[in-house]
User: Fold this.
Amino acid sequence: MRGNELLDKMELVDPAYVEEADEQPPKKRSPWLKWGGLAACLCLVATASIFALTNPDKRVSPPVPDPDCITPYGPSVTQVPGGWSWAHTPSEDWTSDTYSNLSELLDYLRLHDGHGSRESNDGYKGGLSTAHAAMEGSDTVSWKDTVYQLNYDTAKWVGVYQGGVLTGAVQAPADYLFLSDGQLITVGAEYYSGAELDPAYCVRVNIFDLSDPAHPAKLDAFTQLGDLTACWVTNGRLYLLTNDGVCACGYSSFSSLEDYKPQLFHGEEQIPWPQEDIRILGAPSRVSYVAATCIDIKASNVISKRAIYGDIEDVYFGEDWLALVTSTSWENGYTLQDVYTFDGFLTFTGKCDIAEMFGLEKSQTWSDEQEPPRSTRRPQVKAVSKADGVWRMVGEYFQSAGPAWWRELFAVTFDPETGEAGRQTLQLPEDQFCIDDVLWEEDRAIISAGFVRFDPFEQGARLAFAEFDGMDIELLSTGILCDRVTGIENMYSHGSPLGWIRPFIPLETGWSSGWYLRYNETPNGFDIYDLSDSRNPVCLYKSKGDIPEGCRLDFDHCVLYTNGAASSVAVKLITPREDGEYRQPDYSWCVFSVDEEPPVTLRLSPERYPATGFDPASLAPPEP
Assistant:
């Protein structure tokens, strides 16, 4: 919605309905500087870095909260719903064999900070690749016939809709919406200072009471500095992860150790970040951290928090666990990955050394006068899950010999309590592939391995399966090929492995049916697969132009019906402009339903529903 359209619509809104979620932004902190401008560090750096230098003479002022919403942090033991308790600083909760505290790490890095540029698996410099169970928030949620929906124009705001009509607005930065026990939670990244081309961000969490659904009442707010990495809600707890970093060379240039720690605010009160809440993963080559905070939504308390320092490249999470993958690359070498595991209270539970799993040297280096080694073996974890205390991972095992290179698929199990581990590799018919998607089930992973062939050009995706039984693994390659879902012309390009393009949609919760929809390449419809038997997967239906010509389906939004209609799904239909362009197209919701009786077919409901003003999860499935 454009700004003038918003003003036109807001003229119809009662001003009393508008809730201000952020009355006052934090005072401006001095801009973050690129590495090339850090002359005070006495280092010559050729490339820009994601890290930032904070002026120690200026501190961040948090947003002004509602006066009755402050709940101080600081109990040594926090009560958690369900009767659990967690004590700070358990003696075994540590990760690094090299440094006992942050000061020791900084003392080392002031002389050895390599200024290495970081590139995550999604190919974006400075970012963190994330993959997880489907627990992230939505852009639309509903409570008692009232719909709350994200809107984007010059700013992010949440529209309040009743009967499809905009009746109010919540002015809150929001990238995700959650509902938890009659409360609306908005989580959003916000630019707050820094140069235009090098902005600094914080993440705002606002909690609203929905006793009067039409008038959300702000209860509390949290602010955490850094880029938004991940957030999810489970069992009344909100998990918030941000990433950040500062230059460590010339450590004495900072007046306080606090400048190297995350900053978290509850309302206007800054929450301290003591040494017992800091974890160091291995021997980091730079000061970079993920700040993980667990918040009790109902009590508005910080249950636990961790500042986790390391060369972190990927973050994985589930309902009650967190896994961080580290590795280090520099001009003349690299180290192989480690996977550090944490429980739902952010307590460190164990480390899986991928080099040891494969019997490889941990690091490989060469001098400036040498060429990189022509023979390389490098396993890379691409997906992580956890079940019954056992961690499960799948990935690609890259190998080269001279000019030739190939990949194998691998799966790993790891039990941190016993130290027991298992591994299996599998050569697919395609030597060169890339894992595009992994869908975790209770005791199985469905793997989509994308490939490209030339002369003639052909691309596709081979389905493989990893079956788990405790520590045992069985990898299975199948002869079934799918379209490789790469995006929509002029809209989406191929996403990262396990990124935001998720081609599979299960047709029943609980993974009991084993039937899936899968977007086809364009996409102009769905294919239907029966994957209940890993050894004999079957394509039941190939897309036959299931949507109007020229239209496309949106990869990002799908709603699985679970109220007796597990074979129906609502997705967004994209209609291009008259000139055929997909920039600023029209969106509407449509409903697909699978007829399960042979021959299996796919039906599209003739009805179209507007993209704003209601929760698509409330749509009725189409009649047979």
Summary: Residues 102-112 form the longest helix (11 residues).
